[in-house]
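hey so u asked for the seq, here:
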Amino acid sequence: MTGASEVVHVAWGAARADSVRQALRMQGRAERVIALTHVLDVGPIEPFDPEARRIWFAENTRPDDEPDEVPTDPESPWAEATDPGVFPVCWVCPTDAAEHACFLRFVTRMAGRPFDVVEVIGSDFPRPGAASPVWSLGQLRPEEIVAADLGGRRRPFTEAENEAATARWAKLRRENAPLRIVRDGYLVSASLTHFDDVLTGFATGEWELLIKLVARVLGHLDDGSDQPGQGCSYKLLFARILALGQAGALEVSGPGPGMRDFKVRRVADR
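ran it, C-alpha cells below
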C-alpha cells in the first residue's frame, strides 16, 4: 500500500456494505465503502453475459413479489473497487457462498495487485444466546462488528492465497455450473437440483403454505444442521418446489403467484 492510495472498504451486497459502513462510522472512520453487485453463486458465469444471466434467473428462480430492479450500471462498483488509485480492504465470510463467489471474482479482477482482507470466521466469533454460528457477514449488526473488533483482523492477502483464489475462480468458470456451494471451506460447483432432496425431505404429508416449507428448509440450512452458506435463496427454493410439483415429486396446488398463494405436501404413498 502506498501513502497516496485511498483506502476503500469492499463487501458483497448493499446490506453488508451498509453494516460495515455503520461500524466504521461508529469508530469515527469516514472511509468509503463499496457494495459489490451480482449474485455469483447462482447462474452462469462463463462467459459473464448480463443478459444471459438475466434470462437464466427469469427461467430458474421465482420472486415472491415484484422483480428486483436491475442496477443501471452493475459493473461500476467493480471498477471503483479495483481502480488502481485505491487500496481495497475486502470484507468476506467465506462460509457464505455468495460472499465467497464475489470475493473470488474480486481477487481475479485485482489481477495480482495487493489488497487487505477482513476474513470473518464464524467458529472464531462467539455470539452468546445466538441460535446459530456466524456463517455470513450479513448476520452481523454494526455494533457486533465493532464489539468483536473485526476491523482488527485486517491483514494483507498473500501472493499464495491470491494464486489459489484465482485458480479456484478459473475452475468454477470452466465448469459454469448452475449453482456454487461451500464445502469444507471451498466453493464448488453444484447442479440445479442440489436442494431437491432437502425440499422433498422436509415436506410433510399435510397441505401447508409453500412459504412454510421454504422457511423450514432455509432454517435447516442456516442453523448448523447442515453445512450452511450453500448458495440457496428463497427465490431458488420457490422455483424448485414448483418444478418438483410439475415433476410429480411434490404435490403443489394454488393459483399463485406468491408463496402464500400455493400449498404443498409430500406425495402420498401409493
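The mean pLDDT is 91. Residues 196-265 form one domain.
lmk if thats what u needed
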